[in-house]
Amino acid sequence: MAKSIRSKRKRMLRNIKRERYAKKELEKLKQVVALAEKDKDADMKDLYTVTDPLGSTNKSADEPSGSMEVDTKNRDPKTLRDEDGHYPVWMNSRRIKRHKKRLQSMAKKKEKTQKAKKKR
């Protein structure tokens, strides 16, 4: 394929931009490195805290005072429905259909096995 003048021109302009932005990027990088070296000690102090091994034995101060109350609805492990007959939020409609179909097929198998036992 032939090289067009337009593509040559665009390539040349990209090279010019690359050189220009490389200078700006180098200056910013130097500034960031200088700031990082300056604040290195301050960052290290924030990473850990020194505690006295014999000092704080009061557990009530460490633990949160209130307990979280969460509304949990009882779900049937087989059907995955709650007391109101709703499926979990994370189940989409396609998965609900698949789950219903699976439950129906399991029920049919169970009926067949029970009928076979009665005939014996």
Describe the protein's architecture and organization.
This protein is mainly α and 120 residues long. The protein has two domains: 5-46; 78-120. Helix content is 61%, strand content 0%. The protein is built from four helices and no strands. The longest helix has 34 residues, at 5-38. The N and C termini lie far apart (81 Å). The model has no long low-confidence stretch (mean pLDDT 84).
Topology readout:
Elements: H1 5-38, H2 40-47, H3 59-62, H4 93-119
Relevant terms:
flat; mainly alpha; 2 domains; about 120 residues; basal RNA polymerase II transcription machinery binding
Distance between the termini: 81 Å
What is the N-to-C order of secondary-structure elements (H for helix, E for strand)? HHHH
List the quaternary state of the chains.
single chain
Shape: flat
Radius of gyration: 34 Å
Number of strands: 0
Number of domains: 2
Q: Name the helicity range.
A: 55-70%
Helical stretch tally: 4
**Strand content range:** under 5%
How would a crystallographer describe the biggest sheet? none
Overall pLDDT score:
84
* Unreliable parts: none
Summary of the model, kept short:
With 120 residues, the protein is mainly alpha-helical.
